Amino acid sequence: MATKKTTRKSSRNSATEAKQAATQAKAEATKAKAETTKVRRIAAAHHAGGFMNFIREQGVVGLAVGLAIGTAAGDTVKRLVEAFINPLVQLIIGSQKGLEAATWTLQIGDRVGDFKWGAFVSSLISLLATALVVYMIIHMLKLDRLDHKKDA
Questions:
Q1: Residue 136 lies in domain
Q2: I want to staple 85 with a disulfide (CB 3.0 to 4.6 A). Which of 61, 81, 93, 99 is the partner?
Q3: Could you tell me if residue 64 is inside a domain?
Q4: Is the domain of 82 the same as that of 29?
């Protein structure tokens, strides 16, 4: 009788051990699946975080803001040149349309070349006036000193 009890106990122990092993295997599989999911989340967060770092470090937001402000400033400078600088040029030179229409004709044999120097001079005057206005605005608002503080 004693031998029967031992075999029953050992069969119960092996059944219990098998259940424990199965439970442990399931737990390990669940743990492995959770770690895989965690790694995927970290990788996804890393890519999103990397993208956000790219946005911050490369100054994309600053570039967008600068572009918006630059567009508005360019329009303002253009209107300032049209409203104040061009009339001064007209007072000094005469009609700006007359200056733009000024040409120099060169004829060699039967060939003719028209050089529209007036349009070039008019464009050059507008460029220089615009550059002067931008320089004065930046200098008066002391915006040219902002970068020096960053370098120091």
A1: 69-151
A2: 81
A3: no
A4: no
